[in-house]
Amino acid sequence: MQLKITKGNGHCPFCFDHWFSEEESYPGRLRGGRENMGALLVVSLLFLDFFYLAASSTDSRDSSVLQSLKDGWQNTPPSWGTSNDPCGTPWDGVICKNSRVVALKLSSMGLKGKLGGDIGGLTELRSLDLAANRDLVGSISRALGNLLKLDTLILSTCGFSGKIPEELGNLSELTFLSLYSNSFTGTIPATLGKLSKLYWLDLADNQLTGALPVSTSGSSGLDRLYMAKHFHFSNNQLSGTIPPELFSSEMVLIHILFDGNNFSGIIPPTLGLVKTLEVLRVDRNSLTGNVPSTLNNLINVNELHLANNMLTGPLPNLSQMSSLTYVDLSNNSFSSSVAPGWFSTLQSLTTLIVEYGLIRGNLPEGIFSLPHIQQVKLKNNTFSGTLNMGDSISQPLQLVELQNNNISSVTSFSGYTNALMLTGNPVCDADILSNTNYCQLQQQQAKTYITSLVYCGRNSCPPDEKLNPRSCECAYPYEGTLYFRGPTFRELSNITLFHLLEMSLLEKFNRTPFIQNPFFNAHDYLQIELALFPADGKYFKREDIQRIGFDLHSQNYKPPDKFGPYYFFASPYPFSDIDNGSTSTNTGMVIGIAVGCAFLVLCLIGLGTYAIQQKRRAEKANSNALWVPSGNDSGSAPQLKGARWFSYVELKKCTDNFSTSNVVGSGGFGMVYRGTLVDGKLVAIKRAQQGSMQGGLEFKTEIELLSRVHHKNLLGLVGFCSEQGEQILVYEFMPNGTLRQSLAGKFPRIFWVIVKWKLERLCAFLFQFFF
């Protein structure tokens, strides 16, 4: 039998945790007391290491970061205090793979605090969702730029402010970036143009200023985002012209939402190059000049919003935009002209709005027979003559607004009984017609949709609960508001559309939906109140809220096509005090710990007696007896024996500023350097790398332990350094670095110290786990 031993492996050079590997062979048959003790040492230490690693399955670097986040935030989920092992005893919202944290999904958790630089230590993070935590405030850290594997970043509907860090441009794997509904200021960083994989960019509803960044000879710009499908910049304070360089035929944009800003200048003709475009919103700006004829090339656009600018020239020719469902050209400065032909030919049109457009002449009757037309709003123009709506008025038509024109008479209605408004026209001045319905101020009857509760009879709930329309039981639903930024319809009386929306929500979340009060707000967004009910019981578990919130904020939920692009604004959720068992203990881990402890006790009973005897014999035979660490708290200085403290400057100098030419080893803990002290002594210097530092107590314990273990075949600890955020150990330098002679002479004493040290670590973990 051979015992295979080495002084260190690639993970932690010179650490007692990893003395044993398959690097060197120790020959000799293991017989009698010393040989058996050696075998038992190997088995026991391997067992302790295995058990400790099994019980603590989170990488120490990630565990430290999460602990720091927990300390800096209020209202963290209750499970964030049950253990120091976020992966092994899962913390809500923490998703791990191979002991590393790969996702944080904490939507709607009611978190309070700031997003500091510690987050940059989660170097394996792929997804970060902190949406709908309104009390997360302040600037976001530049350290987010260190998360080089991040592909999804969602910080929407929080309370963040300050500038968007330029360092986000370092996230080369990012595909989804959502920062809407915060209070970000400053300009859009040009560095975002480096995100070559980005397809979703939502910066809407902030306080961003300045121009849209485009590429220059020295920097990238948004024009380089060839994979992007969504530019959502609505409701900021962006200004300057919309650069023509921003658009090209290489782009695949489908949504350009620039509404509600301070853009000036002309609409760039290059917009016509983006043939994939479906929704174009540049309304509520200060754009001037003619509408470029190239827009007529955008045959896939279904929503065109140009209202509330200062556009001039004739009404644009949109005759080739065959997919158009919604057009609003209102409140511009167009030249007086007759109604263009496309008013009557765009077969997909549902809504035509041109208010204050200076349109003159007769109103073409073909408008009213378009197969999908729902609303015609042409008030405050100069239409004249006779209004003839034709003999084939479209069945979906619900509203015609023609107030304040010059219409002198009305002929055919063909049975049209829905809203027609002609007040302010000469036709209503005649006494004989002044009392007709269309000459009266008409109050549109709100036809508000609400999910039916007819099967629930007269059931009612307390004020803070809602009635589940399927089970007819009271519960606490997850509530919020859906905002649809470009729906293809405007008629809210079509209950079939809302039934489709309910079905899509049910299929996606497997939770009963309840929707109510749909209406178009001042931004012309369709606003709908949403509630989703728990599958059983009164409350959602936190993991359910996190999953549903992520799906809504990350656009994983796809509504029916007619509803178009949306965003979600969640209401705070009233989690129950017991949190519905979301903090339950990992049963398998408890069983494993119990079995492991029982086995450990049996082993140590046998080993303890023999080890104590050997220890006493060795102490009598050797005046340099080992001193066992006292276990003082982490605030005390390490109790050293023969080791000294080094300054960081001193170690930096003796390694030539930690030059790579002096590297003699490396591992997961850090690098090992050759160094020469001022007295000429050659030493090995182990320096922990940033982000993988152990805790202060563990570092102190290691120093105390190593300063007391002395053997001619073991590297002796010369000293340590713990300043400026560094953790450095200084050892004697041994050129061959291997252990070739027998360890039997001092195995008992070394074994006892190591076992006690590991038991202290294990007991600390068990205490935190259970109490």
TrEMBL record:
Signal peptide, first to last residue: none
SUPFAM superfamilies linked to this entry: L domain-like, Protein kinase-like (PK-like)
Domain of life from the UniProt record: Eukaryota
GO MF, one example: protein kinase activity
Domain annotation Protein kinase: ranges: 658-771
InterPro entries: Kinase-like_dom_sf, Leu-rich_rpt, LRR_dom_sf, Prot_kinase_dom, Protein_kinase_ATP_BS, Ser-Thr/Tyr_kinase_cat_dom
Main location group: membrane
Compartment(s) where it occurs, according to its Swiss-Prot or TrEMBL record: Membrane
Transmembrane segments: 589-612
Residues that, per the record, bind ATP: K686
Keywords for the protein's UniProt record, in alphabetical order: ATP-binding, Glycoprotein, Leucine-rich repeat, Membrane, Nucleotide-binding, Repeat, Signal, Transmembrane, Transmembrane helix
Protein name per UniProt: Protein kinase domain-containing protein
Organism: Cucumis sativus
